[in-house]
Write a structure and sequence with these properties.
The protein is α+β, with helices and mostly antiparallel strands. The chain has one domain. Helix content is about 25%, strand content about 10%. It is built from three helices and two strands, in the order E-H-E-H-H.
């Protein structure tokens, strides 16, 4: 598969627990070229993806973001996808 996009609902409400962390780690076997995660994926899950070296596409924050500007990740909004060629 080339990539994955969506609200993956891995850890939308709190820290990663072992089963959720296993899901994130398991994603590595697919060799995605791009991972575009919306807010409901959960900031802890996206941070783990970045830590593991996954090719996470960062949002612009222009259309709102659950993450703060100083966070390591800026979660994508659907408008980031619609207004750009992120998936291309």
């Amino acid at each position: 598969m080339y990539g994955v996009y969506g609200g993956l609902h891995i850890a939308p409400f709190g820290p990663l627990k072992p089963p959720q962390e296993a899901v994130v780690i398991g994603m590595g076997k697919y060799g995605f070229k791009k991972v575009a995660a919306n807010h409901c994926t959960g900031i802890p899950a996206v941070k783990k993806m970045i830590e593991l070296g996954y090719p996470v596409v960062k949002g612009t924050g222009r259309f709102g973001s659950k993450s703060r500007p100083h966070d390591a990740v800026r979660i994508l909004s659907r408008f980031d996808i619609l207004k750009s060629n992120i998936i291309a």
